[in-house]
Design goal:
The chain has 424 residues and is of the alpha+beta class. The chain folds into 3 domains: 120 residues, Elongation Factor Tu (Ef-tu), domain 3, CATH 2.40.30.200; 227 residues, no CATH class; 54 residues. The chain is 50% helix and 18% strand. The protein contains 11 helices and 9 strands. It has a 6-stranded antiparallel barrel. Strands 8-9 form a two-stranded antiparallel ribbon. Helix 3 packs antiparallel against helix 4. The longest helix has 26 residues.
Length: 424
């Protein structure tokens, strides 16, 4: 197998600056943009001079000469091409102007040259989009949507359980369902490796749920039950993201609860709540509210994860998106008794789905992909890694370890001629 030295950006041109479009990175050779006023020139017969009418600010085009560099330059170019042909505006991270919400105004010119291998060049012309979109942080929009979903879940539970015309039997059914769900959440949290941390965080909402059982049926009791039920996923999120502290008040290194473990737990709670048998609309509302609140917590934790690859991030995104869609369908069944709260909940779910997709799309574009290759002959994992990443010893060792772990190789010195997964 012929080995290739990994091409470094400094081999091409010094001083290149990084940029990205829709999360896909590239390097900038030079960039320019137009600025000024939009003027309409008017000429009159028999009169000298020009007359100009000011039509406002000219937020001109942004021209960029870009390149992609590396052993995988074809794959990089294809990724950028897919980003460029995607319809609608997108986020351009400009090396000098920062984040801009733009559209590609003219088709990009993509060039490969036989005398300039492992380099692809792009000539790009963007126009600022008129859409008023907050480009400061996609996570800020998602956080707001998650907060709205928590509130909508509590609103649904309290409205259905607090209906004035409800009989005592139906009330008791809903209250007992909420109590049983709270017990199930505590039981599931107690099975985790970090059970003490989770159970400690659940003490307050569990106590509030127990206190609500002694309250007189009505709106106040319904609000208290709904608040306790929705607070349980919030408490699990806080426990999964906050570091433990020692007796002297300092964080304990290496003892954080794992956000991924918390996300798995909340998704399991969601699946359990969705599978519960319900008799009346009250207990159905308790399960849907729990499901929605758990999904809100899972969305908050998934954004904290350090994804290994694009496939990893896409798997989490699809799993949560499917769960949110299922929750919206189950909520629609309650629309006959509580059309207003159900509409608010379904709108909140739609908002979380949209903002989650937008936030994770920015992340996915920056992640490496898991690819499958088939060695032409039996080779060592070291030779395969060197072929993929070049001669940098640190990169080669990291790739060897990843190939061995990812493919569960019993003999890294002899990789068979079977498909092998690699992270590139």
């Amino acid at each position: 197998m012929t080995m290739m030295r990994r091409l470094d950006v400094s081999d091409c041109l010094p001083g290149l600056l990084p940029a990205s479009f829709r999360g896909v990175p590239f390097w900038v050779l030079n960039a320019d943009h137009d600025a000024g006023r939009r003027l309409a020139q008017t000429l009159f017969p028999g009169r000298d001079g020009n007359y100009h009418d000011d039509l406002g600010l000219h937020d001109g085009s942004i021209s960029i000469s870009a390149i992609v560099v590396g052993d995988d330059y074809i794959a990089q170019a294809q990724r950028l091409e897919r980003a460029l042909i995607t319809p609608g505006p997108g986020t351009l991270v400009h090396p000098w102007l920062g984040e801009k919400w733009v559209v590609l105004s003219t088709p990009a010119n993509i060039t490969f040259a036989a005398n300039n291998l492992r380099v692809g060049t792009f000539d790009l012309i963007f126009e600022p989009s008129a859409d008023d979109v907050d480009l400061v942080s996609t996570i800020a929009a998602l956080a707001a949507s998650i907060g709205g979903l928590y509130s909508a879940a509590a609103g649904l539970a309290s409205t259905v359980l607090g209906a004035a015309s409800m009989s005592l039997v139906v009330w008791a059914t809903g209250r007992d369902a909420a109590t049983a769900i709270a017990g199930t959440i505590s039981t599931m949290a107690g099975r985790q490796a970090t059970a003490p941390l989770y159970l400690s965080a659940l003490e307050t909402p569990v106590a509030a749920m127990s206190a609500s059982e002694a309250m007189t049926p009505g709106a106040d009791a319904a609000t208290a039950i709904a608040a306790a039920l929705v607070e349980m996923p919030r408490a699990l999120v806080a426990a999964a993201t906050a570091p433990l502290t020692s007796a002297i008040g300092r964080p304990v290194v290496g003892s954080n609860a794992d956000p991924q473990n918390g996300a798995v737990l909340l998704l399991a709670i969601t699946e359990t709540a969705a599978g519960l048998d319900t008799i009346a609309q009250t207990d159905a509302a308790m399960t849907v509210a729990t499901e929605a609140a758990a999904l809100a917590g899972a969305a908050a934790l998934i954004c904290e994860l350090a994804f290994e690859s694009r496939q990893d991030a896409l798997g989490w995104r699809d799993r949560l998106d499917n769960a949110l869609a299922g929750c919206a369908r189950r909520a629609a069944v309650l629309a006959g008794d509580a059309p207003g709260p159900v509409a608010v909940l379904r709108a909140a779910i739609a908002s979380v789905r949209a903002d989650l997709a937008r936030d994770l799309s920015e992340t996915i574009g920056r992640l490496p992909a898991v690819r499958t290759i088939t060695p032409p002959a039996t080779v060592s994992a070291f030779a395969l890694a060197q072929h993929l990443v070049g001669d940098d010893p640190r990169a080669v060792v990291a790739m060897v370890n990843d190939i061995t772990r990812r493919n569960r190789l019993s003999h890294p010195g002899a990789v068979p001629t079977d498909p092998v997964e690699v992270l590139l």
